[in-house]
Amino acid sequence: MHLELGKHYRIIFDNGTKIAGELMDIKLIGEEIYSLWIDIGMQPVYITYRDVKEILEIDSYENEIKTLN
Description:
By secondary structure, the protein is mainly beta.
C-alpha cells in the first residue's frame, strides 16, 4: 500500500485494536517501513509497523474517534 503524509487512515493491529488519524511521518529502514506517526487529534501516536495487520484510507477520522473505543 502506498501511504501519503497528510492523508487519514484507520490502522488495525494484529490484536484487533483500531486507531484512526492523520499520517504525520513514516520511518524507513532501507526501503521497508519500520514505524509510523499519526495524529489522532492534537496527539501524535507512534506505531510500530510490524504490529499492523491492515491500513485503510478514510475520508476523515473525526467521526471515528467515538466509534473506535
